[in-house]
Amino acid sequence: MRVTFLGVGEACDEQLPNTSVWVESDAGSSRQSILLDCGFTVPPQYWRLCPDPNDLDALWISHFHGDHFFGIPALLLRFWELKRAKPLVVVGQRGIEEKVRQTMDLAYPDFLPKLTYPLDFRTAVAGEELSVAGHLWKAAAGGHGQANLAVRIGDGKRSVFYSGDGTATDETALLAEGCDLLIHEAFRLDEPTPGHGTVVQCIELARRARAPRLALVHVQREERRARHREIMEVIGQVQDIEVYLPEPGDVLTV
After folding, report:
1. DSSP string spanning 48-105?
2. What is the rounded CA–CA span in Å between residue 62 and residue 164?
3. What is the mean predicted confidence (pLDDT) over 228-250?
4. For residues 197 and 77, what is the distance between their CA atoms, to the nearest angstrom?
5. pLDDT tier at 26 (50, 70, 90 boundaries)?
6. Are 7 and 42 in contact (CB under 8 A)?
7. pLDDT-based confidence at 28, cuts 50/70/90?
8. What angle, 0 to 180 degrees and rounded to 10, lies between the N-to-C axes of helices 199-209 and 228-236?
9. I want to staple 133 with a disulfide (CB 3.0 to 4.6 A). Which of 32, 162, 233, 250 is the partner?
10. Are the CB atoms for 21 and 151 separated by under 8 Å?
11. What is the DSSP code (8-state) at residue 178?
12. Mean pLDDT over all residues of the chain?
């Protein structure tokens, strides 16, 4: 599995694009392309790396905050403009179809019926499994201000866990158990923030889940700049896990 960090920033970061992860995997006999979250600054990052409108197989939305799904209208519009024909699977919690349709109608009224490709909406329910784009998907509720689902996707050989936003819960810790790469939001280094994780908490979660690799994303913009050295020192002290603070465009092979 090839994991590209299109963005690693939080909602109001003027330098780093919204957190979004592009996963490419050879599941079965064909390559599959999956996008995890699509905030308002994400589409240009995706287009720079993947101009093919038919490449993306599935889109996951963790929750309905703008920095995680307001990029959908631009993404769908460009796919239409470039004459995409292949169906696109959109996966998310209950209400995913209604939210996408509402957002598309606000951005481009009456445009959704004009799409030249079908949208296949799938509802993810915590604790239940879905088979989408040649992968097994399973979700669990994280601790955030709005309902948020963490997700684990596996191709039969490797698996990636993505938190969306929020603190770890017993359910998300169990979901992450033994994953090959754990991607988790870490809003602060060590200071608790309601509805968000910390770098220190994420490292402990990775240990608890026995995940060999941890990528920290969605760090609060001022925290990332002012305390960057401290964050890197904490990461550098970890010997039992590979811990990353990725930049936009960074790639990990799982």
Report:
1. HH---TT---EEEE--SSHHHHTTHHHHHHHHHHTT--S-EEEEESTTHHHHHHHHHH
2. 5
3. 98
4. 34
5. confident
6. yes
7. low
8. 20
9. 32
10. no
11. T
12. 97
58: which 2 tokens? Answer: 């599935």
Report the half-sphere exposure of 125 (CA within 13 A, side-chain side).
2
Encoded tokens for 61: 């939305």
Average pLDDT over residues 113-132: 97
pTM above 0.85, yes or no: yes
Q: Are 43 and 7 in contact (CB under 8 A)?
A: no
Closest listed residue to residue 220, CA positions, set 198, 243, 204, 250: 198
Please provide residue 146's backbone torsions phi and psi, each rounded to the nearest 5 degrees.
-120, 155
Do residues 185 and 166 touch, judged by C-beta distance below 8 A? yes
Q: What is the pLDDT of residues 130-163, one digit of tens each?
A: 999 999 999 999 999 999 999 999 999 999 999 9
Size (the chain), residues: 254
Q: At what angle do helices 96-107 and 72-81 cross, to 10 degrees?
A: 70
Give the Cα separation of 110 and 99 in Å (integer).
Answer: 15
HEC readout, 90-102: EEECCCHHHHHHH
Distance (Å, rounded) from C-alpha 71 to C-alpha 39? Answer: 5
Domains and CATH numbers, the chain: 2-253 (3.60.15.10)
Looking only at the bridges linking them, the beta strands covering 159-162 and 149-154 are antiparallel
Q: Is 249 exposed, middle or buried (0-12, 13-18, 19+ CB in 10 A)?
A: middle
Single-letter amino acid code for the residue at 253: T
* Per-residue pLDDT reduced to its tens digit, 185-238: 999 999 999 999 999 999 999 999 999 999 999 999 999 999 999 999 999 999
